[in-house]
């Protein structure tokens, strides 16, 4: 029986313990949601890097046109587009994107040595859970909440609970204590249309930096995207295997 663990913030990740595990990183407001929307809008691959210096260095190496997005502690960066999913339009031609952030991209870097690494948010968690369930290889499942700059993040915990809910409903999983609490938090939040997330610390931070629509936009797209992002070869791409209902 596969066990589901929830790590409540990226700072608690023990990278060496992820070897052999299936992992998913969650940063609902904003990084993982933005990455999912990027892939949905024909930006691929997506390069998630630690910070602005790494992003700029990678940008210099790109020969083709690409998108450069980033923030630091909620503030925009000079020369970067803000990673606001509301602002992303469909690209007529596929092009790469580079993104750095305070929490989500750092969490991805810390989890990159997992056996398999998926990118999840409220917008696509149902599909990520479906894909994880198809594996059935016995590996432990570690759900990494990015957190909020060394603090607990309500929306990421609820995003982890979404994955737990969909996996647990299919049967055959053992839940850690944190996974049980995350599942309960997701159920409660879902029943209230996620309204409390609009008053979360991160949502209020986005409002202060003049991105008032971002959190509501993500919530409005709850389980509306079928994109399953996977980390492969140092970049994030769409999972190419067809995802089927696995009961």
Question: Helices, strands, pairings?
Answer:
Blueprint (H helix, E strand, L loop, with lengths): L1 E6 L14 E5 L4 H10 L2 E7 L2 H10 L4 E7 L2 E2 L18 E6 L3 H8 L4 E5 L4 H11 L5 E5 L8 H17 L2 E3 L1 H15 L9 H8 L5 H7 L8 E4 L2 E4 L9
Parallel strand pairs: 1-8, 1-9, 2-7, 2-8, 3-6, 4-6
Antiparallel strand pairs: 4-5, 10-11
Helix pairs in contact: 4-5, 5-6
Describe the structure.
- By secondary structure, the protein is of the alpha/beta class.
- 35% of the residues lie in helices and 22% in strands.
- A 5-stranded parallel β-sheet has the order 7-2-8-1-9, with helices on both faces. The chain has a 4-stranded mixed β-sheet with strand order 3-6-4-5, with helices on both faces. The chain has a two-stranded antiparallel ribbon with strand order 10-11.
- It starts with a strand and ends in a 9-residue tail after the last strand.
- Mean pLDDT is 95; it is low at 242-247.
Produce a short descriptive summary.
With 247 residues, the chain is α/β, with parallel strands linked by helices.
The termini sit apart by 16 Å
Beta-strand content estimate: 15-25%
Class based on secondary structure composition and strand pairing: alpha/beta
Encode the helix/strand succession as letters. Answer: EEHEHEEEHEHEHEHHHEE
Q: Give a short account of the largest sheet.
A: 5 strands, parallel
User: Percent of residues in helical segments?
Assistant: 25-40%
Q: Note the total helix count.
A: 8
Quaternary arrangement of the chains shown? single chain
User: What is the strand tally?
Assistant: 11
